[in-house]
Amino acid sequence: MTISNAQPRAVVVGSGIGGLTAAVALHQRGWQVTVLERAAAVEAVGAGIGLAPNGHHALDVIGLGEEIRELAAWQGDGGVRAPGGRWLARTNSSAATERFGGPLVLVHRATLIDRIAARLPDGAVRTGSPATLADPGVAGGRPAVVTTPDGDVEADLVIGADGINSATRRALFPEHPGPVYAGITTWRVVVPAPAAPFEPHETWGRGALWGSQPLKDGRVYAYAAAVAPAGGRSADGEKAELLRRFGDWHHPVPAILDAADPERVLRHDVHHLITPLPAFHRGRTALLGDAAHAMAPTMGQGGNQAIEDGIVLAHHLPDADELGTGLAAYSADRLPRTTGIVRQSAKITKLMSVRSAPAVALRDTLMILAGLGPGLALRTFDGIANWLPPQRTYAAGARDHQVRDHHVQR
């Protein structure tokens, strides 16, 4: 099946956050876009997602940033704690906003997916449509081709947004080693807010971490991570496993666990692409998000970087005439930035993973010394959370953007 239209044609494989962002950004630039999703419905995998200022700055480009900023629920103080409740580093929402030009916004993934997808025309997303890259195409030459149950689809551009186990990535770079286990597994859950108030926090223990963050709708998004063998599952359920690991930690952890529905506790091992790809494109095919640079969640940047990818890719592809040049520019912009964030996330994962009492004591002491003020506690995200998109947006004047044409701040 060939898409017949005078517009340049793009096919996105996968309907996650990055793929949908790219689809909207390209659609707004005049591309005809088709999103092919294997699942029977567009569903958000996971519970909550933290959108740092770089994420909603990127969403400004497609007219969604302000809508997302209005969902910010964190007001006041927060920081990093020890399992007994002692504060290791303090910060507050106003310090984050001042430093990075916007708040940290916690949203349910389903909310974000719905709001991005709503900016696509009817029929652009085709569910129940598994797609396999048959031919990456040649820039300036033959089109790319994906195979679907309904036949082959030709396109000027194919975007592999098919996640950490991306078949598109394997087709483009079959010699790459692919994702490897990062040494930790994670749990996530969304529950009603506990009766007793609490300050948003991330708590670091011995080879384990817990976070409790408020959502705008009054619920709480909680996440946990721990050093564990890959592929593990609890025989009596993941809620029981969380109770064993975190049940005696400070408030609100026990209250959140008490409220958790055992059937809605998500557990996933963490894999990352610690070996970077040689490029994020080949021929007429590009990769983005976890397909291009899967990272550990310890910096909360996976979804934010996928959104950045979609915006920067569309920026470099105003039309199909200079596709080769545009895709090369996309790789040149995104590969160094995301490689650095993958590596930094891996370093923080190792720091979180220490388990010996002396090592934990040293880590906590260093954290206390480094986190004496709100600004110092946030400095890990300098150069990351304050990223700006490569073009002016409707919100640029309010933030006094300093943006250079065809350049992404790294």
Averaging pLDDT over every residue, what do you get?
89
Morphology call: globular
Count of separate DSSP helical elements: 14
- Assembly type of the chains comes to single chain
User: Can you summarize the main beta sheet?
Assistant: 7 strands, mixed
Strand ordering within the main sheet: 5-4-13-14-15-12-16
Count of DSSP E strands? 18
Helix content: 25-40%
In angstroms, what is the radius of gyration?
21 Å
What percentage of the residues does DSSP assign to strands (E)? 15-25%
Report, as a whole number of angstroms, the end-to-end distance.
40 Å
Structural class: alpha/beta
Q: Give the low-pLDDT segments.
A: 397-410
How would you portray this structure in words?
With 410 residues, the protein is an alpha/beta fold. Helix content is 33%, strand content 23%. A seven-stranded mixed beta sheet has the order 5-4-13-14-15-12-16. Helix 2 runs parallel beside helix 10 (302-315). The chain starts with 8 loop residues before the first strand and ends in an 11-residue tail after the last helix. Mean pLDDT is 89; it is low at 397-410.
Could you provide a short overview of the structure?
With 410 residues, the protein is α/β, with parallel strands linked by helices. Strand 13 and strand 14 form a beta hairpin. Helix content is 33%, strand content 23%.
Helix/strand layout:
Layout: E1 9-13, H1 17-28, E2 32-36, E3 48-51, H2 53-60, H3 65-69, E4 77-81, E5 87-92, H4 93-100, E6 105-108, H5 109-117, E7 125-126, E8 132-135, E9 144-148, E10 151-155, E11 157-160, H6 167-172, E12 180-192, E13 201-204, E14 208-214, E15 219-227, H7 238-246, H8 253-259, E16 266-272, E17 281-282, E18 285-287, H9 290-293, H10 302-315, H11 323-352, H12 357-370, H13 374-378, H14 396-399
Parallel strand pairs: 1-2, 1-11, 2-7, 4-13, 11-18
Antiparallel strand pairs: 3-6, 4-5, 8-9, 9-10, 12-15, 12-16, 13-14, 14-15, 17-18
Helix pairs in contact: 1-5, 1-10, 2-10, 10-11
